[in-house]
Design a protein that fits this description.
Layout lengths: L4 E5 L4 H12 L3 E6 L14 E3 L5 H11 L3 E4 L6 H6 L1 H21 L4 E7 L22 H20 L2 E7 L1 E3 L17 H9 L6 E4 L11 E2 L1 E3 H16 L5 E5 L5 E2 H12 L5 E4 L8 E2 L5 H6 L8 H14 L5
Parallel strand pairs: 1-2, 1-4, 2-3, 4-5, 5-6, 6-11, 7-10, 8-13, 9-14
Antiparallel strand pairs: 9-12
Helix pairs in contact: 1-7, 2-4, 4-5, 6-8, 6-10, 8-10
The structure holds uridine-5'-diphosphate (UDP).
Uridine-5'-diphosphate (UDP) binds next to helix 6 and strand 8.
Length: about 325
């Protein structure tokens, strides 16, 4: 078979850049489409780069015409819970309208295998409920709502046009490429582990814990963390699943292990062997108390193994990247 190009939206971002590396290693050619609003040109290392914005349908059409991709992996999105509560319009426009343009173009160009990066934030705060793929979805922030809307679009396009989708609902993603070719770099940074590492090496004064009065054993929020390399590996498995005609499917991507904010801080102290300066602050609007996957569908059906997704490994890999890696515009 000749070259198989995969269109990777958001390929200049954290997860997308790792996905490009995994695709390349699996024999595909990743074509990055990114507007570089939050992504980095330097992170595009494994295939062609096309700058464009999903909001402009003509940009999207151009890349399908030029590259004739066999499939799409759609990562491009705004993804900050806090920001989504302050500027919901941004999230609906960018995440939903942009995705609609992309999905529409994919159908028009006959590119019907579509892998979508969704989120556990689509489930919302469901105390005591085991979150599996059949759990009801009640997002409590605009970010989760925007991702849920795109899932609905994909369901309708499947019915109407036989477009096939694999939807991955990620829990929290952490770590970095162990070879440190790519890594996590947001500006401004909002995610827990890189912020902890910033506090550890003095790039910021302290890590503020967002809320210490949650109904959890230590009062801080609990999340389920997955190593970015494990996460992108399963995207390649999802793509292959589609290519052999196994049809549309939703998969949670989490390990089932929950870590509180304080537990992550403690682990970071051990891994870096340095103190983590902290400040106890107020809750962040939109945060769920606990998000932990209760499903192993990705393991049983896709053959996924989340071998790097233990907290020590994730922080070790993040720390290595943190000390050496940075992108510039
Ligand atoms: N968090 C925190 N301080 C920070 C950033 C995050 O206490 O400066 C908490 C946040 O409230 C959540 C967890 O860390 O409970 C993970 O947040 P992150 O933004 O990394 O990911 P999210 O869960 O929003 O996708």
């Amino acid at each position: 078979m000749g070259e198989q190009k995969v269109l990777v939206t958001g390929g200049a971002g954290y997860i997308g850049s790792h996905a490009c590396k995994a695709l390349k290693q699996a024999g595909f050619t990743p074509v990055t489409f990114d507007n570089l609003v939050t992504g980095w040109r330097d992170a595009v290392k494994f295939g062609p780069f096309e700058r464009g914005d999903l909001i402009n349908k003509s940009d999207v059409d151009r890349v399908f015409e030029e590259h004739a991709p066999v499939a799409v992996m759609h990562f491009a999105a705004l993804s900050q819970v806090g920001e989504s509560m302050q500027e919901p319009g941004l999230y609906w426009r960018n995440n939903v309208m942009g995705s609609l343009n992309l999905i529409q173009a994919a159908v028009e160009y006959g590119c019907i295998d579509f892998v979508f990066s969704s989120t556990c934030a689509t489930y919302g705060d469901q105390d005591g409920v085991v979150l599996d793929e059949d759990s009801s979805q009640h997002p409590i922030n605009a970010y989760g709502a925007s991702k849920r809307a795109v899932e609905n679009i994909l369901a309708d396009f499947r019915t109407a046009y036989r477009m096939n989708h694999v939807i991955f609902r990620y829990f929290n993603v952490a770590g970095a490429d162990p070879e440190a070719e790519v890594g996590e770099f947001h500006q401004p940074e909002t995610h827990l582990i890189p912020l902890i590492l910033d506090a550890v090496d003095g790039k910021r004064d302290a890590l503020t814990i967002f809320g210490t009065d949650y109904d959890t054993p230590d009062g801080t929020c609990i999340r389920d963390y997955v190593h970015v390399c494990d996460l992108v590996d399963v995207h390649v498995l999802g793509l292959k699943w589609l290519q052999v005609g196994r049809g549309s499917r939703v998969f949670n991507l989490g390990t089932g292990d929950g870590f509180s904010v304080r537990e992550v801080i403690d682990q970071a102290g051990h891994v870096t062997n340095r103190p983590v300066p902290i400040v106890e602050g107020a809750r962040r609007p939109g945060d769920c108390t606990k998000l932990v996957s209760g499903s192993s569908r990705a393991v049983s059906e896709l053959g996924w193994s989340a071998g790097r997704s233990n907290m020590k490994q994730m922080i070790t890999d993040a720390w290595r990247w943190h000390q050496n890696g940075a992108y510039t515009k």
